[in-house]
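User:
Hi there, any thoughts?
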Amino acid sequence: MDPIAHTLTGAALAASGLRRATPLATAALLIGANLPDIDAVTLLADPYLSLAHRRGWSHGILALALLPPLLAAALLCWDHLVRRRLRPAAPAARWWPLVLVSAIAVVSHPVLDWLNNYGMRWLMPFDGRWFYGDALFIIDPWLWLALGGVLFLTWSRRPLALVAWLPFWGLASWLMLTNALVPEPARPVWLVGIALLAALRVLRPAPGEPAVRLVLATVVLYMAVNSLANIPARAQVRGELAALGLGTAGDIMIGPVPANPFRGTVVAATPEAYVLGRWDWFAEPRLTLHQPPIPRNLHHPLVAAAADDRQARRFLVWSRFPYGEVQATADGHQVRFRDARYASLRGGIAGPLVAVQGMGVAARAAPQGTAEIQME
């Protein structure tokens, strides 16, 4: 999920009562909720390197065991060297409560990341398998509204705090009202939610810890329902594809779409192609297929040769439904790698472009994120 959702989750855990576990508990929850994203540093090196390494080592079981005590140790150092020197009478932070709240926060991060169709590698570094929840879009405005709303009511009693919340709600509302990906029915629902929060802020600005816990429980239920709903949906898609004579589908994704938990983007992997469609729980029929299917082309000689390139290998580590597009050029051919998960997005997510010439293979990297393979 996006950093805002992670931060709101850590803040909501603090407001639910965990902040009272020990001094610096709130800091541990806020930092820990974002800490696994330290692998974002790979974005500075190369986009395909980042694809190959994001949501891996820092999100896997080894990191989940090591990051909480490391965070607790860092906070205890801060407590000893800075905080208690500035405030000698302040109570000292305690080790085990800090480790516990840090662990809760750190684990919340990969749980949220697993919910979308980008994927998560829980077993790293021992196993590089990807796991996909296919439950929530990577930016979910209803999480923002629920968690942000209860935190707004909890921490906006002072005028300065109230002013600090305004940019968040203004930016979130601008995205909801202007982004073309947001379905029209979601916009008035969002505005009603904002109006309700404003009314509650006037009537009762401090909901208290029980209300925060209730919202957290509701959010967990929302996540669970969206995740479990994929089980019967995938079974129905599999059955309808078989009835249409499209072959036995392997991996099936019903990927979440922005701001509408009742619809999804369908990708079904058959031996030679990816079948695309749309799923809608309230439509009849629920499954609508897009034609034509996308050829996988992975066994095409040119695509197989291009897949040996370093940038292509990095892209394929991350890709769930990879395919290659072959185009003729004046010097030979080009292969563009893509992932069918994002074929419905405008322009998709482009993988590396690999130039292929002749019949033998000798690879070298080309500038600006592309790759070139010389065929001899």
The beta strands are 252-257, 260-269, 273-280, 287-295, 322-329, 332-339, 350-356, 362-365, 371-374. The first helix runs from residue 3 to 15.
